[in-house]
Amino acid sequence: MICFCLICFIFFFLFTLQDNLLLNVLTTTAKMGFEDNKSKQKGVLNCSDPCITFLLLYITCVSAPVGGFFLESCHLSHNAAICSDRHLKLVPKDIPPTVISFDLSKNQISRIQAGTFTNLLVLKDLNLHQNQILKIDNGSFSNLISLQKLTLNNNRLVKLGQGTFDGLSNLLELRLNTNNIAAVSSTAFQSLIRLKLLDISQNHLGTMKNLYMMLQHMPQLQQFTVRRNKLKHFYSWEFTNHSLDLQVLDLSNNPIRDFRITNNIFPNLTCLSIGDPFSVIKMEWDVKNKTFLRQVSSIDISGLHTTLQVMEELLETVNTSLTSLAANGIKHNRTKLINLACSIPTLSQFQFRRGNLRIITSDFLKPCVHVTELDLSENHIKTINENAFKSMEKLTVLRLSQNKLSVVPSAIQTLQNLSELDLSNNLIGTVNCHDFSNQTKLKELNLKNNSITLKDCVFKDLVRLQVLRLQSNQITDLKGAFKSSLSNLKRLHLNGNKLKAIRNGEFNGLKSLLNLSLHQNQIETLDKYSFVGLIKLTDIQLQSNALKKITFNLLANLRRLDLSDNRIQYPENATLTELPFSNLSCLEELSINAQHHRGKSTLPSNFLQGLKNLLRFSARNCQLIYLDKDTFTYTPKLERLDISSNDLQTLSPEHFAPIRNLKSLYISRIALQSLDFLRDAKLTKLKFLQGRHNQYSVITEDVIKSLPSLMYLDLKYISFYCACDNAWFINWTRNSKQTLVNGAYNYSCNYPDNFKGKKLLDLDLKPCLYDVNFISFVSTSCIVCFVMVGSFAYHLMRLQLYCAYYLLLSWLFDSKYKNNQAPHQYDAFISYNYHDEPWVMGELLPKLEGEQGWRLCLHHRDFQPGRSILDNITDAIYGSRKTICVISRRYLESEWCSTEIQAASYRLFDQKKDVLILVFLEDIPTYMLSPFHRMRKLLKRQTYLSWPRAAGQPGVFWEKLRKALQTGNDPSEENVLLTLTGT
């Protein structure tokens, strides 16, 4: 259709041109396009090729996707590509080059091939954790010039070959733990010159040679973790003669039998871990000089199987610098080990877990006078002597969790400097008033997972306590424990108990409390005095209770309130007389979500009254069947609204009129029939929209354009209508550079039936590009116009139409005869009328050919029989140096003679060559030349010869004609020529 209209336009344009342009095309095309009889047919058949090409280019420009803001198997979030747990077998190719983080964890990738990460030049973090990678091709990471963190944990790597990490010159952290690596190439790590952390734990490295091959190329390595490998010895001389910059070395859980350091290769080492609880062979320790490990401040010998003598040598090596010691899992020579450890004057942190202790005697920890942090968790301690900690006056942190204590040990009363006490996961039943009598400096107390019964005086002496953990204690009554105590407490955890009610003034003493956790209890009622005294409270968690009625009017500073999973319900069209949040002007976040169905409900229109600074509101799965248009009138600053999983079915612009600052909207699973309400809601600041599992099937252009700030759109599990109604949305999804359409590649069709199950983005949009009715109208109009114009042109402009045909061919082939450099066959072509043939044959031919020797072309003698007259004329004109036009009255009346002079004149003006000689056999008045405007133009610009005027001097006539024929085609000779031929 486009081609047809284009032709019509061309013809219409051509008909307005003057005949000289038509003749230009006639002569040029005739010479260019008709070298043989087949050329003409070829030209006609190819006329549509440019049109088809134009059409294809148009379609390509209009419909070709340019790479939209969505990924086939991943989604983007803040310059991070997240492709975790997508069952991928290959690394996606459509990741934008601007991402700085790329998460490919928990997939099925088995091989990393060269060129996989070609375009990710600014990527800093690549996570390939938990795949099935067996092989990494050489140079696979060579383009990741900005990468700083690479994670390859939990794969199936067996060997690190040459060039595995080539190009990663800026890498800082490399994690390879939990693979099957048994061999390392000597050049695998040669590019990692800036690496600071290497974790190659839980592999099958068995020799020091492997470690040497790694460390020799990493001069800046600070943390080296080789846990759970198969190293059987550690010899410093097998590394290098140069010192390393290591600060942390973890060799734990290796069956090391011999540890020897003969030179100072670790001058900056501060943390050392060594020991294997499963080893049956005792380790030997040999450090030639105590200064070799003089910087070590933390050492972990958990599970170390060795002799007491070796243990003593080991601790003596770090005697002057050790501040932290972990000796977990050591069950032999425990008393002697503690004596050795605590004799180190610098030791301040001592961890002795899983030591199978049952009783802590008065002498057991007596040497530990300098220890400030003691961890005895995960033992079987039942009894602690009241003087067990008497010598530990400096102790500030004591951890006794996961033991079998039934009471708070009285021994802690001697620890007057204690600031943190952990008694969680024991069997403590009752807490007495004197249990914490001397703990005036205690700031954090952990009593969770016991079976505590409270008393009103139990916390009376904890005047500096800031954090109290009482969760999961089966507490049914607070017994006034917080009415007058804990004035400095900031965080109170009472979740996971069996509280049914909060009595008036129960928290009256907690003047400084900021965070209160009461979730997962059985609280049924709250009144406005339940939280009296909590004047600074900012966060309260009340989810998973049995609340039916709520009021929080006394919590003026509350910022966050969670009421999820309660039994709060209101009948339809209810209006509250007692407002639950009327004084919570500072509240920023409110949640009333529900996990379990509890019957149909509504929200009273004034439910949120008083929350003028609310920013986030969530009412997910509340079985709401109606939402009043005035619900959000009281929350003008609302930015995040979640009303998913309800039965609302419809929403209107009136709902959102008061909340024009909304930035995130969650409306999944509410049986919405349409998103048209967004068109007039004017949510110009909305950036995040999630609308999964609804009943609309078409996303219109006006809906999307009404959200100019939209950056994230999630419409998963929508039954899309795969037709032209969604053509705009599909194109927008493909091309949008602002909005990420989450999971767009997996959007599927549900209608019509023949498209069911197909991917939405696979829909062919070509039939949707144009309106069929409009195309039919335009096509019909073009055909009618073409027929009318064609009929008119055929009857009135037949010759011009014929010329226009050649013009079109000349434009399509873009060639002119003037580029043809073939030599001339004749000196001159004689153009004359057959009535003037006697003069030509009797006068002109004898003089020019007989006497002067020129080679002339005459139509009756030299035209090729069987060819068209037009072809012969153009061949004769362009095959001759000159054209002599013998003009008479009969000549002017001849159609073919007129064609010959017009073609010759075109050659004159188009090629800028002096090729035309005019010879008048008769004196023709000017008025007789008026119909021949081309002739008149030539006479004004070109001199000519007149035979009648040369009657007295025929010799001069023939001499001038000879000189005119003799003159070349150089434009500089034009004046000479005109002078010679003029009369």
UniProtKB/TrEMBL annotation:
Keywords: Glycoprotein, Immunity, Inflammatory response, Innate immunity, Leucine-rich repeat, Membrane, Receptor, Repeat, Signal, Transmembrane, Transmembrane helix. It comes from the Eukaryota. SMART domains: LRR_SD22, LRR_TYP, TIR. This is Toll-like receptor 13. The keyword Repeat applies. The chain crosses the membrane at residues 774-797. Residues 1-18 form the signal peptide. Belongs to the Toll-like receptor family. One of its GO terms (biological process) is inflammatory response. It is found in: Membrane. Pfam families: LRR_8, TIR. Residues 824-965 form the TIR domain.
